[in-house]
Design goal:
Rossmann fold, 353 residues, alpha/beta, 13 strands, six-stranded parallel beta sheet
């Protein structure tokens, strides 16, 4: 009988067999110090019984990256994948891109077992569906989640401060004197966190959320376009709009300009991500800089370190964001004092013309 579909034994399997943690099993098999002789013997015997192939790096080792269907067409994903690819190459690994596309009726698509994919481990951005994330997060010894915001606390992850970023961006608009501020959000845990930061900034500034000025949904230019169109039909029009992603802001600005409104003179716009197009858009976009590429690279370093037992840091990292002030918010770019004084310590501020 063929063994072609036999699942590959993982470090997690060895750890379970030896009744030790994954980190201990890795250190024992890689002859790291700090493991007593009895534990090392137990782990090695478990590995032998299971015919474990080992985790030591070798030429041709591969790291998988789970991609949403839009893949690198999305600037955020493209920047993230660049960080993954560069860090993988530096560590001596090849990068393998893994994706599915939704069917005609958006039926669930089976997610393969990472142990069947001839990869050492997998990096999973938050773009896939919640079901896909849950499936891949069920292999914590093989998986590092990126930008999933602790949806699966048992799985290693690299995130950024969505709530803090939304707070500082919205507070910036309130500090500029705006009293009617709209909200365009996305989906999954991101929207919960950005919405929380948005509301906190408004509450501290004594502002209210007006009916018909808050929308969420998909991460797309079209969604931002439609949300802004509906805001312009509201009884009270916004003088400023916060968007949870640059891709939403691009659609918002398009709608405003189609309706003859000037950005920022008539409506100010502030966003999050700082993708490459943000600085070159018309007008250049004020946005919270998210270290997208570095998040991808850090996820690879964490995964490789966990695989070979060398990772010494936390398995749940939150990277800092920073507000980049450009023309779309209408702020005088030379005036940094008021903003810097009220910015949370984890979130900095920078100004560009």
């Amino acid at each position: 009988m063929s063994n072609r579909h036999t699942k590959r034994v993982t470090l997690e399997d060895v750890a379970r067999e030896a009744a030790v943690s994954v980190a201990t099993a890795s250190m024992a098999l890689n002859s790291r110090p700090g493991i007593n002789a009895e534990t090392r013997r137990r782990v090695e015997e478990a590995a032998a019984r299971l015919a474990y192939a080992g985790v030591r790096r070798a030429p041709g080792r591969r790291i998988g990256v789970w991609m949403p269907s839009q893949g690198a067409a999305d600037q955020y994903q493209a920047m993230l994948l660049r960080g993954v690819s560069l860090a993988s190459a530096e560590a001596g690994y090849q990068t393998v891109y893994i994706t599915t596309t939704t069917g005609r009726y958006r039926e669930p698509i089976p997610v393969p077992d990472p142990r069947d994919l001839d990869i050492e481990g997998i990096i999973v951005p938050s773009g896939p569906s919640l079901g896909h994330l849950a499936r891949l997060a069920s292999f914590p010894s093989l998986t590092v989640l990126v930008d999933a915001h602790n949806l699966f606390p048992h799985c290693p992850s690299v995130d950024h401060d969505d709530e803090g970023g939304a707070y500082v961006a919205t507070k910036h608009l309130a500090d500029l004197g705006h009293t009617v501020i709209g909200y365009v959000g996305g989906s999954l845990a991101h929207n919960t966190l950005t919405w929380r930061g948005f509301r906190r900034a408004l509450a501290e500034a004594g502002r209210v959320i007006h009916p018909g000025l808050a929308f969420d949904g998909s991460w797309s230019t079209q969604r931002g376009y439609r949300a802004a169109a509906r805001m312009l039909e509201a009884r009270v029009r916004p003088t400023a709009i916060f968007c949870a992603a640059d891709v939403l802001a691009f659609g918002v600005i398009h709608t405003l300009q189609e309706h003859g409104l000037r950005v920022p003179e008539d409506v100010a716009v502030v966003s999050m991500d700082d993708v490459e197009l943000a600085a070159h858009f018309s007008p250049p976009l004020t946005t919270v800089h998210v270290p997208i590429q570095e998040m991808g690279a850090t996820a690879v370093r964490m995964l490789v370190g966990l695989l070979d037992g060398t990772w010494q840091g936390s398995t749940h990292l939150v990277m800092s964001d920073s507000l980049v002030v450009r023309r779309s918010c209408g702020a005088a770019t030379s005036d940094t004092s008021a903003i810097s004084a009220t910015t949370p310590a984890a979130v900095g501020v920078a100004h560009e013309p």
